[in-house]
Structure formats: C-alpha cells, structure tokens
Amino acid sequence: MSADFLYGIEVIINGLMAGVLYALVALGFVLIYKASGIFNYAQGVMALFSALTLAGIMSGQVPFAHLINAIFGTDIHYFGWNVPVLAAIILTLIVMVIFAWGVQRFVFRHLVGQEPIILFMATIGLAYFLEGVGDLMWGSDIKTLAVGLPQGGSLWVEEATAGLGGDDFFGFFIDKLDMVATVVAIILVAGLIAFSQYTKQGRAMRAVADDHQAALSVGISLNFIWILVWSLAGLVALVAGIMWGAKSGVQFSLSLIALKALPVLMLGGFTSIPGAIVGGLIIGVGEKLFEYLIGAPYLGGATENWFAYVLALLFLVFRPQGLFGERIIERV
Amino acid sequence: MNQNAVMDKDAPYVTEDGRQIGGVMMDLRNITLRFGGVEAIKAISFDIREGEIRAIIGPNGAGKSSMLNVISGFYKPQEGEVYFRGQKRPPMKPFQVARQGVARTFQNIALFEGMSVLDNIMTGRMGHIKSNMLAQAIWAGKAQREENENREAVERIIDFLEIQAIRKTPVGRLPYGLKKRVELARALAAEPDLLLLDEPMAGMNVEEKEDMSRFILDVNDEFGTTIALIEHDMGVVMDLSDRVVVMDYGRKIGDGTPDEVRNNQEVIDAYLGVAHD
Predict the structure, then answer these.
(1) What is the pTM of this model?
(2) In this predicted complex, what is the ipTM?
C-alpha cells in the first residue's frame, strides 16, 4: 500500500475521533431540544462549568473563595486536600443535577408555553449567568485537568502499523486521548440509548418529547422529565468538558465548543441522537480530509476553521431538516 | 323501580342488563370555571357512580370538554370542589390525577406519533412499573418480570380492541379511526378506575361508531370500568349511557336517565329539538 493512501486513512481515523468529540457536544443540545423544544445556547458553558467544577473540587479549591475573602476579610483559597478523581466526578454530577433543578425551578417553569425564541433568549441569559457563576466560584485562571487520561500519540499503534507501507511510512499517529474519548463516548451513547429504550423514565422522556398533553394524561410529570433531561445534558457536558479540558486545559474559551456543535446539528438534525453522532463524524472526517487533500496543498491551510460551516450551509440549502431530523411536512 | 334507586343517592342498584352500579365515585360540587371574563362552566354539580357509563352532552361550546378537563386536572376551577372516593381532592396537576387512576382520551387525539402502537400503549403502564432505573436498563431480575407482566397486560388489551395487525406500526401512519382506538387502548392499559372519553366517536363512519360503541360497552362490562364520555351522536348516547348530564352555555339543564333527559322540555328546547327536527 502506498504511503499516501495510508496517510489518508490516518487522516480519516483522526477525523472520526475528532468527530466523536463534536458529537458529544451536539448530543447535549439534542437531548434538551427533543424533550422541551429549547435550543440550549448554554450547553457549551455547561461543559466549561462542569470542567471548572471538576478541576476545582479535585484540587481542593474553596468555592466562592474571592467572595468569602472579600466579605469576611479572610484569606482562604484551598482546603488543603486533594479529592480522588471518581469522588470529584460524582460531586460534580451532583452539582450539575442541582443546576438542572435550578434551571427548571427558576427559569423554564415560568416560561412554559412561550415562543421558542423567548426560550432561546433565556438560555443565552443562562449561558452568561453560568459563566459568571463559574468565574465567581472557581476563579478565572486556566486550570489543568489531570484526571489521569493518557496524552500524546500511541507508540503501540504506530509500531503495529509501521509495517503496512513502504519505507516512507512510519505507522499511524493516533492520539491516546482521542482513543479514550472515543471509547467513553461509545459507552455514554450506548448507556443513553439503553436508558431511553428500556427504562420507564426513558420511555417517559420519549413520550414528553413527542406530546406534552398525552404525556400528562398517562401520569408523567413534565417537570420531573425536564429536570432529568437537563441533568443528562449536564452529564454529557461534563464528559465533553473532561475530554476537551484534558486536551487544551480548562479555560473560558472552552464554552466556544458549542459553536462547533452547530454545524453538526445542522447536518444531523436537532432531534436525532444518531444524527448527532453521524453528523459529528461527518464533520470531523470532512474537515480533516478537506484540509489534507485540498486545504493544505491548494488553499494555504487552516480550512478546518470554516469547512464545517460551509458544509452546514450546503445542507441548509438542500436538506434543511438534516440527515435524520424529522421531515418538515406542512399539511394543507 | 330503578328510577327510584337513582334518586336515592348512595344506594347501589342493578341495571336492566344486570350490571352493578355502586356508590358515588366522583362528586363535583358547584364547579365554576372562568377564562378571563368568560364563564365556561357555571356552578355545575353532578356525580359519577361506580360502574356506570355517564354521558355529558350539549351543543357546541356548552362547556363539556372544559368539564372533562376539570375532572382530569387540566383546568383548575375557580370555585367548587371535586370529591374523589369520598375525599376532597386538593388542586392537582394532570399527571397526579392520572396516577390516582383516572385515564382519559382527547377530542383531538393526543398520541405519541413517533412511537409504535405497542410503545404508545406501554406508556399507559407507566404507573405499574416499580423497579428501579438501573435494573430496568440492564434488564435484571425483577425488572424483567415486571416488563413481561406489563407486556402481557398490553397484549390482552391489543387483543381486546382487535388491533393485533398494527402492533408495530408507528402511530403517525394510522388512519383516524384506528388512532382513536389506540388512544383508548393506552388509556385502558393504565387499568383506570375512571375512564374519561372526549368524543370517542367524533368524525367516524357508521361502522367505526358501532365498533367503538361495542368496545365501550365491553370495557364497562368486562373490566367494570366507570366511564364518563362526551358525545354528539344522540342515538349513541341514549344507547350507551346509564345517566346523562346535559349542558348548555356552561349551565346544567338536565341530569338523569336517557329517558328522563329525552323528555325534559328545557333539554328539548336547547338541544334535542334543534338537532332532531
């Protein structure tokens, strides 16, 4: 096999794994949109906030330390202990569930039946609120997230595949973190699907996504389901936050990964979980392959920044409901 | 003879076709419902007795559906009390009412269009699943047994309503008449004590109406389910129901057996006279 061909495959594999990360972010959007019709602009900030919280708890940071010090004239910053990863993740999840409850109790409960644009505006407010809370709670410095995920390329893969090509092929370069992210994402998605297909709460979630009135009439509490859905979105945000945070550090620009999810959603549709995954993979592979084949040689590179959006635009023109979204049929 | 028994409020009696009618199950007292300045229901009182088929009739806009929505918790009346099984019911959300054993169907069908017929009916079993979330997800022991029991209950209802052929069909693809039947199946799956049907036969042809009438009678007969229904077709109402409430412009203008209602002059003026001239 020629080295060029093999490098092409390497690009595709890396694209697939980048796509998994995009899909993770998009998944959070889909969960909430399906169940409540809310396009949650705050999903990216939720990823940031959960990553900040996780990093803060692990390093034993005192939440709201600046505020406490300013009011009481104290000078505390750290508890002086380190929390093990697993315990910190569980604590962070609890924080995200409390956040989900608060969002439902104080924001969306009062906005039931409002126009989608009003709900969307509310989530923009929520995004900035949450960013502010994150800042106040954990400080604005960049944190490293050392949850023990492997970093760098996998030598094992490189050596195992080096023999495939000729002399100028040195094996596939595959990031270990990407590999872990892929495995975690697969487990997460499988878990979500098992949950929504086989559990009473999952069935109730699908029911609410389909018809509120009918759901009420069979004894489903909309309020409970919405809290559940926001909690699940919080879980997905945490996973995305860990993966992206481990990759590039926990900083406030992390919330911008939400923008990467937009083209994924346009491809996959806003209402489909498989759509989010396939959309993520297509975007991931598409932008890497485009950069490798056309961008770098002919366009001066850096096409990865905009390729996804152009692809999404094309989709908007030819298939506005996305690959798997519900067909938009107007009955006359 | 039976007439006297109906007059005596709490005494159980047996209908001519041998069904047991028990005491009062749901008692509505002085219900008033307003939307802004419009009074949809004006101080109406009536009761629903255990095991009976109770019809609510009246011209369009009489407030029948509003009444049903009050019973099922979708609307909150400004005045009046609802007594269920002798207890005063506090203000409740619709899902809480449903969990008390009150199932309903809607005038404009509210089904889960994206789900199969089977899944739709399974949602009716929601209140009968007790095992925890994790056990259900990994399909362990008790959860599996429970799921099987629920599945059997659903299959019985599917047989009962003769919809075996469409079990796996997504509801969105079904014709109107069958959707109505699936909605009834979902309500029945909850094994309700009180079943509320909002125009179960609206928009159906004669044959479909006959089928639906038969199902309603069978449900009442075989499961002993108490049924309150709204219907426009007078022939159907007179054949099906044990007692009839007549509403007009939000007021109650008649209440009694079909025969009594038929001969009530105010009812004839308001409704029957117009409909049957």
Answers:
(1) 0.84
(2) 0.85
